[in-house]
Write a structure and sequence with these properties.
Blueprint (H helix, E strand, L loop, with lengths): L2 E19 L5 E21 L4 E5 L11 H12 L5 E7 L10 H16 L6 H8 L6 H6 L2 E5 L4 E4 L7 E6 L6 H9 L9 H9 L3 H7 L1 E2 L2 H7 L2 H11 L4 E4 L6 E5 L2 H13 L5 E6 L7
Parallel strand pairs: 1-8, 3-4
Antiparallel strand pairs: 1-2, 2-4, 2-5, 5-6, 7-10, 7-11, 9-10
Helix pairs in contact: 1-2, 2-3, 6-7, 9-10
């Protein structure tokens, strides 16, 4: 196998709760993660020259060890003594630095791809164990689907599939540092926690409205305080018919769940018309797990 094309899917958080901070700086979380059908296209090719070459359509992304895709390839190639070179092309569509695990998803796709291309024989679980050293979201991005994430995000339990719906993604023209958001959260007292168990019950019942009603993200208070545009986008989505709208991860991306595609598109138009977001996408949930 000399060439492999893969889709690195983005994610949203249906619920995100922070339970505490560990001495090493990591936070204990309880989250419901959901893959959506918005993806980066990843091409991995064997190269004649040894080493790792990264190419991307976004000029501002690093193409060295500061790129998670590079580090994912480097991790497996060093461990298994792979002397051949690889060329990795990242065609990016998932908003960057946006709370949608784009970088983690790229790393997950590269781990999966290098494992296949060089017939390393690693199981999904073995890839996930290696993935956590790259980032807390990488094991989830290897698994995909509807999942309860605990610990620092690496303890994963598959859940009942998310009911079919339309997802509106809106990324305002700002970037948010996950590290800074969590640092600010540490100075706040969390008074209201999202109903993670309610989301899980809604999934079991295949009840989209219950899932939407129970959504919550404790990081919103920190990020919205700094960037009120996030709240503005949420309000438009709900006014236009979203069952609920919420910030994904540490932001700034906002997503809304709709049972009507026309209304989702109408909300996207309203957000763009007010110049609140440059990137908007109407897509769907993706429930297939990676095998």
């Amino acid at each position: 196998m000399d060439k492999l094309d893969l889709k690195a899917l983005g994610k949203i958080n249906l619920g995100l709760d922070v339970l505490g901070r560990r001495e090493n700086g990591y936070h204990d979380v309880r989250m419901v993660m959901q893959t959506i059908y918005l993806y980066d296209q990843i091409r991995i090719e064997k190269a004649k020259e040894p080493g790792i070459q990264i190419y991307t359509n976004l000029f501002y992304l690093p193409v060295n060890e500061n790129n998670l895709a590079y580090r994912a390839a480097d991790l497996l190639m060093k461990e298994f003594g792979i002397k051949e070179g690889v060329k990795i092309t990242l065609d990016k569509h998932i908003p960057v630095a946006a709370g949608m695990a784009g970088g983690s998803s790229n790393a997950a796709a590269v781990l999966y791809g290098i494992n296949r291309m060089f017939s390393l024989g690693l199981t999904q679980k073995e890839l996930m164990v290696r993935g956590v050293s790259l980032g807390a979201d990488v094991p989830y991005c290897i698994m995909r689907g509807t999942v309860l994430a605990e610990g620092i995000g690496e303890v994963l339990t598959p859940l009942a599939a998310m009911p079919r719906c339309y997802v509106l993604i809106a990324k305002p023209p700002i970037s948010v540092s996950t590290k800074v958001v969590y640092e600010k959260l540490d100075s706040h007292k969390i008074e209201v926690h999202p109903d993670i168990d309610g989301i899980i019950d809604g999934l079991k019942l295949h009840d989209l409205r219950k899932v939407a009603a129970c959504m919550g993200n404790v990081l919103e208070n920190v990020t919205i305080e700094e960037y009120p545009v996030i709240e503005d986008i949420k309000k438009i989505m709900i006014r236009e018919g979203a069952l609920n709208a919420m910030m994904s991860g540490s932001g700034p991306t906002v997503f809304g769940l709709f049972d009507d595609k026309r209304r989702a598109r109408q909300a996207a138009f309203g957000i763009k018309e007010r110049q609140l977001a440059r990137q908007t996408y109407v897509t769907s949930v993706h429930n297939a797990r990676r095998r």
